[in-house]
């Protein structure tokens, strides 16, 4: 498992009958692989994990593993309220063929440092799968501090962090404290280029679901030292990337996927598809960007 490169946080595709739309998911997956992504994350916030049954998670994971056929690792997100449920999902993910886990702190309870560490250690002890800790105190109200990461160093399978504190300086703090012990992947689309320049080795993306080639191109150009070329694409990309920061990021990004021909805007209740002025406003952002889509340099060989 190499925590490096572009890891899309895949949306979960639904039919109008509110069932998994695996053919549409497979269409998007093929385009992502052709664009050069480096891994796949299933069942995250963007994947509407909170409204998926375990049966659906299994079906989606097994389908993805089969379609990917070993080309890139499939990572299952764990965002459970109970420690025992998180431990069980980690075991299930391994059986289903996942090659890694993305692990959030406990959901729906603001655990303190001791409880957060115990939660992470319980899951890490239950599996051999490599783990990326998701550090997002803005949305989930629990910060995984440097002191917590220090206590997690004893677990060799805790290897990476999805850095979503929205403080770019935290990349430097992590590197100053731990060197390359933890691989840092940016988890906020609007800070991705900045964090890649500061030393992040990957990007867990949202808008990559609709614009995979542009996302991979920015990453590879930055890592090849072609900053000016990357910046031109990134500046075009920013209005789209800002859709990742809203509470309705699922609806916004799914609408972008639909407009890009890679998905649909169907979401699962209690989420509702966009309507009225809000939908028109977001459509304008998306369609204007698509109309001005930049020509990409050759990036796959970088």
What can you see in these coordinates?
- It is a single chain.
- This protein is of the alpha/beta class and 302 residues long.
- It has one domain: Aldolase class I (TIM Barrel, Alpha-Beta Barrel).
- It contains 12 helices and 8 strands.
- An 8-stranded parallel β-sheet has the order 1-8-7-6-5-4-3-2.
- α2 links the parallel β2 and β3.
- The protein is globular and about 50 Å long.
- The chain starts with a strand and ends in an 11-residue tail after the last helix.
- The mean pLDDT is 98.
Summarize the structure.
The protein is built from twelve helices and eight strands. It has one domain (5-291): Aldolase class I (TIM Barrel, Alpha-Beta Barrel).
Q: Sheet bearing the most strands, described?
A: 8 strands, parallel
User: Helical stretch count?
Assistant: 12
Distance linking N and C termini: 21 Å
- Our estimate of the beta-strand percent is 5-15%
CATH H-tier superfamily: Aldolase class I
**CATH hierarchy class name:** Alpha Beta
Spatially, the strands of the biggest sheet line up as: 1-8-7-6-5-4-3-2
Secondary structure class reads: alpha/beta
Taken in chain order, the helices and strands follow as EHEHEHEHEHHEHEHEHHHH
For the record, the count of structural domains works out to 1
CATH architecture: Alpha-Beta Barrel
Ranges with pLDDT <50 over ≥5 residues?
none
Radius of gyration, rounded? Answer: 18 Å
Shape: globular
CATH topology: TIM Barrel
Helix content: 40-55%
* Number of distinct beta strands: 8
Average per-residue pLDDT, rounded, comes to 98
Binding site for pyruvate: 204
GO molecular function: 4-hydroxy-tetrahydrodipicolinate synthase activity
Active site: 134 (proton donor/acceptor), 162 (schiff-base intermediate with substrate)
Organism: Chitinophaga oryziterrae
């Amino acid at each position: 498992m190499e925590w490096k490169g572009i890891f899309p946080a895949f949306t979960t595709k639904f039919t109008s009958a509110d069932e998994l739309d695996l053919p549409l998911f497979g269409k998007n997956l093929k385009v992502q692989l052709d664009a050069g992504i480096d891994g796949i994350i299933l069942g995250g916030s963007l994947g509407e994990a909170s409204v998926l049954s375990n049966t659906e998670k299994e079906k989606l994971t097994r389908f993805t593993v089969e379609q990917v056929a070993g080309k890139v690792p499939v990572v299952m997100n764990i965002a459970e309220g109970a420690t025992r449920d998180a431990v069980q999902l980690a075991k299930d993910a391994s059986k289903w063929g996942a090659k890694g886990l993305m692990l959030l702190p406990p959901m729906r309870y603001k655990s303190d440092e001791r409880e957060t560490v115990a939660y992470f250690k319980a899951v890490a002890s239950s599996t051999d799968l490599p783990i990326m800790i998701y550090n997002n105190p803005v949305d989930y109200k629990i910060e995984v501090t440097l002191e917590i990461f220090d206590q997690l160093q004893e677990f060799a399978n805790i290897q990476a962090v999805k850095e979503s504190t929205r403080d770019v300086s935290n990349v430097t703090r992590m590197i100053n404290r731990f060197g390359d012990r933890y691989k840092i992947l940016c988890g906020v689309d609007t800070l991705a280029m900045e964090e890649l320049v500061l030393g992040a080795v990957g990007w867990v993306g949202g808008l990559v679901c609709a614009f995979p080639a542009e996302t991979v191109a920015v990453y590879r150009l930055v890592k090849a030292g072609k900053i000016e070329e990357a910046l031109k694409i990134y500046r075009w990309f920013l209005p789209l990337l800002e859709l990742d920061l809203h509470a309705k990021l699922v609806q916004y990004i799914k609408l972008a996927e639909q407009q890009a021909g890679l998905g649909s805007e169907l979401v699962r209740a209690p989420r509702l598809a966009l309507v009225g002025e809000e939908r028109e406003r977001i459509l304008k952002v998306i369609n204007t960007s698509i109309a001005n889509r930049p020509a990409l340099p050759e990036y796959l060989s970088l």
